[in-house]
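User: For documentation purposes, I need each entry recorded in a consistent format: the amino acid sequence on its own, followed directly by the corresponding structure tokens. There are two entries in this batch. Please keep commentary to a minimum and don't merge the entries.

Assistant: Recorded as requested. Entry 1:
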Amino acid sequence: MGFYLYGACVARVSDEKMGFAMRIFWTALLKAINWLRASRLRSWMTGVAGVVLVTLVAGELWLRLTPFDAATLFPAATSTAVFDREHSLLRLYLGQDEQWRLPVRLADVSPWVIHATVAAEDQRFWRHGGIDIQAIVRAALQNVLAGRIVSGASTITMQVVGFSESRERTIGRKLRQMAKALWLERHATKEEILEIYLTNAPYGGNICGIEAAARRYFGKSARDLTASEAALLAGIPQAPNRYRPDRNPQAAWRRMQYVLARMRETGALQEGEYQRLRVQRPTVKSESFRVANAPHFCDMVRSWYPTRPHLVTTLDFDTQTLAEETLRETIARLAPSGVTNGAAVVLHNPSGEVRALVGSADYWNPVISGQVNGAIASRAAGSALKPLIYGTALDLGLLLPSSVLYDVPSMFGDYAPENFDRSWRGLIRADKALAWSLNIPAMEVLERVGVERMLAYLERAGVRPTTPENRNYGLSLAVGTCGSRLLELTNAYAAIARGGEWRPFRVLLDDPSIAQSRTLTAAERSNTAWLSKSTPTSGSLEAPRPTFHPTTRLFSEAACYWVTRALSDPRLRSPEELSPELRGFGDVAWKTGTSNGYHDAWTIAYDGNLTVGVWLGNFDGRPSPALVGARAAAPAALKILRELRARSGIHMTPLPTTPPADLVPATLCATSGELATPDCPTTLTGECLALQAKSGGVKVSPQCSIHRRIRVDTETGERLCARCPTDRLWHYKVFAFWPGPVAAWLRGQGQVEELPPPHLHLCSAVQDRATPSLRIVTPRAGETFILSSARDRTFQKLALEAIAPSATQKLFWFLDNELLTVKSPHEVVFWVPTEGTHELRCVDEQGGADAVRFTVRVE
């Protein structure tokens, strides 16, 4: 064939009478063709073709089969941005790689950003498959003509895969980028690739991504960028430090002109728009990322969601500002008394959203440990737990709204609690006892409920009391000696405001509350009898995540109505809570708390719409006489609630004024306030919770246990029992059987009722006992004791002894009308004497009593 070709060529050249040079050319061509026909070269070319074919097939298989993992293409260490409910930035946290980087979605950026970025970096981005052949040819010619690398022909896709590689400019790196770009285009959409680019592209310094750049240079989100602002930012990644607008404004502006021109070429801008924009100079604000609004709240939310870079919270900025200002003013007022810190929480009752959270007086002040978050720190709650205790007792049928409780000197084991003002009210209705925050009635109610069962209720309400390890709570739980957290306790009050419906508090707008919950332990999952036992609580002071339980019925509507009425009726308030600054809140329910030793002051206030909690104290535990709930925390909590209610546009839900359906009329004993029995001499119409099934048992409202009908001997007036002689004449008579401490207090106050008579002295049961009635045997009536002034009084104690009927379990010892102790009949009481004349009284559980007067002198 070569010969034929050669002949044809020669003939053609001859016919055209070409010159000798052309003959030489065609002769050489024929020899080359003959050389290519050689078997050795043919084998070499076949091998090359095979290698090329295998390479192409392997490359195609790699592109198709290699799994796509976008995480390998860009750094995982993004910044965390926390926003308020209106999407305004509260705080931005630096990423672990020391870069400011915020992930973006194309739907969340301005369309001008997309147009400007594509025009500046890769005009054919939407058409090529990862490599732009035209750009490669153009770059090659430019580099050859310039004698150096002046153009890289990198597409946006190639830049994306280059984020994870070194910055060296070599042919090997460029080839790797091309291969990875082809692979990426096979597995990701153009939109996904552009999102990765806009998240990780460099925009000067340690600013990565369009969102961080928009907030850094213009103080706005990328979705709000104008065309000129987008063009200015789109030009930066080409040379981030050279085109950084806050440091090189002229270079950045010239680069913007270039980007605008490219946008006109791509059709993103019309000529008129281009001419208008090219003369504009966007104002660069150079916003600082160090802004830290609501710092405690942001730190808390970020710690709960460490893997989420974009957190849109429930916080309302205006409400947060009000809470911060009120707390600062309050602490400034109390500073002369040694109060340095406080915390505040505002919850939206219908949704459970946290609208404001202030953790300390000054986040940036290390002297007062300002970065401690007081809203989630464990502090002694004082009386703030009492509404939950009363509500629990009501729902369990252990208390009625009108029940009369006993505010008298009492002993609970070795614990003799006192009221805040160290005085006693005697018989008092439950609602007033709660409103006045009396300690003895609260402990009486807690004793009825049971500490373990109350702890289970608190856990159910998301309140996890914390105390040092291995410490038992006991009845002191009623006066808040355990640790509680303001956020959790405020959320429990919000459940009362909702009529008993409890739900976890929410801190994110885009998450259902259940998604913000912690995981239950195996023990918690298996614990279904939460009314009969408590779930172990932790003493950790770490920030608590919202409790697991979903929306549930915590209290009945009737219990919540009664508690709310007790906490909102001004007629029930103590005189201390009727100061001028605390008046005028009859449509607000609020409860104060003061911890033992004046270490903490609490107030939680609520209406139908909002619940506000305030805590005041010192993080180092220093006490202050100013730390009284009604004087310190109540004005702040009520001011916040009043200001929020006064704001226009805020829908306020009033407290309920109509009794719920499960609070029904009932006939009550006028003395005990409980359901009347036939023995009650005087009755009245009141309220009672309707019977209902609860946790496998039937709730039964308490009946009056004070009035009892007994048989009385007609001749002697003594009490008869089944063992008394049957030939006696008798009649029925009703007596009031008060507990021993109550009977003693009533007699001490001159409120003497007819006491139950002693047992018939002829009864065999009485004759079998060593002691027919209670009697003090030491000291004797009228006895005088002489002490030595030279000896310590602790070595001159006096023994107090009494003998009592065999059925007696407890003896209540009173000295000068003050409860001294409670002991069993077989125990001897030792008393460190004081000089003077004293009255000693001993009372048993049935109201039996004996009293003696004696004198102590010192010589």
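Entry 2:
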Amino acid sequence: MRMKNIKLPRAALRIAIRLVLTAAVLFGGYRWIEGGETEIRASDVGVADLLAYEEQGEKPPYALLMQEAGTSAGQESEGPPIVIDPADYGASGPEARLETVAGAEGTELHWLNEEGWAEWTFDAPAAGWYELLFEYKPLEGGKGSIVRGVQIDGAYPFAESERIELQRNWKDAKYPYDRNEIGMQIRPQQDELVGWSVKAASDFSVSSEPLLYRLEQGKHTIRLVGHKEPIALKSLTLRPKKPLPTYAEYAAGKPAPTEEAAWYGVKEAENFERKSALSIQTDHWNEPYVSPLPKGHITYNVLGGQRWRLPGEWVEWELQVPKDGWYEIDLKVYQNYRNGFKAYRTIEIDGEVPFRELLRYPLEFNREFTIETIVDPEGKPYQFYLTEGSHKLRMTADSSPLLPVRLALTSVLQDLSAFDRDVRRITGNYSVKAYDANMDEKRTWDMKKFDPDVEPKLDAFIRRLADIRDYLNGLNGKNSDISEALLNSIDLLEAMRADVDIVPNKINDFSTIQSNIGTWMTTLTQQPLLLDFIVVRTPEADPGFKEPTELSRIPYSIVDFSRSFVMDYDMRKHNREEALTIWVQRGRDYADLLREMIAQDFTPKTGIEVNVNLMPNPNMLILGNAAGEVPDVALGVGEATPADYAMRDAVEDLSGYPGFEEVFDRFIPGVRRAMNYDGGVYGLPEVQNFQVLFYRTDIFDSLNLKAPQTWDDVFDILPTLQENGMTMNYPKADFATMFFQQGAELYSEDGLTGVLTSDEGIKAFKRWTELYDKYNLPIDIPAFFQHFRDGDIPIGIADFNTYVQLLVAAPEITGHWKIAPLPGVRQPDGEIARWSPQGLSAGMIMKKSSKKDEAWEFLKWWTSAEVQAKYASDMESFYGIEFRWNTANVEAMKSLSWPSDDLKALREQAKWAKNMPYVPGYYFLNRELEFAWNATVMDRIPAQESLEKAQLSLQREMNRRQKDFGIAPGSNLHVPQVTQPYEWEEPQ
């Protein structure tokens, strides 16, 4: 049945319009990729951005702006450039710390923090499209890029202008790399190249060329809004747009080719001149013909891969040519990270893209290392005219060709989620435990009676997904993993379309579709590429380099295996038996980076050698302690472990070591009290796992709700949510938040007695249980992430893992959710108490260590702000946001790459951190309170009676354990009391 023959209601008409728009976007995008971005900009237009703008009234996306501009945005604009002196700002926000400094070449504006704004007034001599260039220098701050928002005449002209990234420049501190005692290379530290740079405002996930700002003739204002990192500015320039030449135009403007003697030069990829991010790293590779060959040693001989994948990340090399002339460029690349996908790089020479065809240049998917000449679509090599001497070659990761797919998929998934919620509201299709649909297959439905648009909606979903799949396959020239996920999703929807009355019984298929597609969506902006070397050569030259084959691997593997019998891999022969021994209860990636940083920084500074070993099971520490085989330092242990071992005199008290107070002040007092026992301190926090409030801004806006600040606010919004088939998540096991917010403690100050039945404790327990038996929150939600993503539980309390999961696995709701501090209890002075514990892992020194002083030096180094910030930055840069290191060091926490709004919420919640103390018998507390909760909520036993029973059982176990540990009645375990929130020190 054709859509045009159906008399569509308004909702169905909207879906039909979206279908047409999606098709137009996708086919227009393909046409742009074939024809060149300057000529046609349609590929920048995505249905998701378009609909978000139309329906929500948000800032228009750059893609929509370019579509509305049509071909005029690609034409040359007339008029001279507009140069603005940053020191001559006309206004600024009170939070911005601005200083005018006399530099060697004139005045400079130093923006010493990352907050506030600064504004300038200027005249545009002619109407047109302008590129915005920053002449800037990073000031001392964190390791991340500088981020500023750009407003024109008081508003962001497009959404991407809200976050313009200005990168720092980095270089390996040493090349060639040093080797250790047994010949393994050590990756050097990264040095920041501090100096002035000129960069145009750009976003390589949206466009391969600089972003354009439309100016009419006359007076305007430009405002920079601080987001991340301090900056020095020497000039701001609005330069009229100039289109790039084609390759034919480029070649016609250069001297005619002449026959030259064969010559070639090789540049190892790891010998780069500079790069834009710490995340871009060298790696070691072992196979035939890799350069240089490792010969049994760890040799960093390639660059990139998954460590060079994000749009906008670039690497620059210096190439030398012997004389003026025409040259070709070969790249030895490995492009097997995303099955079936091309990888794109925009290529510059000496700071400019020579011709249009080098925008988003595609490198084909291949399962092996291959030597690829830079060629045109017909396979004919591009030739570059280079003058004698040095030239800069820069390659920038570019995902802009995939923008239409990403935005169209986002739109479809958002509409599917809304359709899912509508069906659930119609059918009441929720289970008691709020984690599955009510699959009553005996019940029959007449879905068209309740939703007359159900068939056209499903038709639109199927056709939109099919169009996206066809476009993606056309772009890549083959099937890919995401194409298969799309095909499976289409099959599920077609089964529903064949009989719409089964939709209520297939409701979980919508979550399946979201999970399948969402898993692959995150890869659409990723462009991993591994590079071995670059060859610049005359067209006549044949360097004769070989590519690996299965046959060549056989003798190579035999030789490599033979080396293992004769090479020395035993570090203990090189004075390592006297080294400090560290056991790490984390994954190998974490331990490898720690080992690398120790070799780069700790050992050279202190002279202390270190052996780092994995501890895959915490029982190894228990068994080792019993056998007398323990490390000097244990890292990554649970927050209760230091106190547990302290009760048994198996771990060192750190409070007597030199500089202890300064070191312990690195952490929030409420967090560090978990490290205390009987007046001593037995561990140092490493990472923390906070709880925050998550809420869906799109759903809250549609219901006219605001994020709750107090529990009374929560109880006010629950009826509205429940009337719309929604609810809230509260982790059932989290009793401590309720107790602490009501001013209740769980133990007495001497740590010998449980105090569950205090007036405050009874009040807290009642509120905790009333969430479920009075306010009807779901008891068990094993997959809050999925319900939050679907929208049926649009608000809830969850931890750091959920934050990372939403960023990585739910791209379709990016921009539609936020975090906030936990709801709290308003105090008489108006302050809201948001007390809550934070999960910890810690480091500690074992009592049986013979190197306690060296171990203390290591812990001081390891928990310092500088080291924690670098470790956090490197982990996330190397392995992605799913490896974000949420350091417990308060100074290092401020330097991490959190969005500014999220960091504010985290800091507000972190200041109310209050962890449980650990005393003998502490493990009974959770058990007894769970029993009490079950008795009150499930068996309807009065709250006070349940709590009194828990108190008796807890005290009985505490008394027994005190006797076991020889703690006499009347003793004092000195439980630290935390009554005031932590106050963050702000820079002056």
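Summary note for entry 2:
The longest helix spans residues 10-35.
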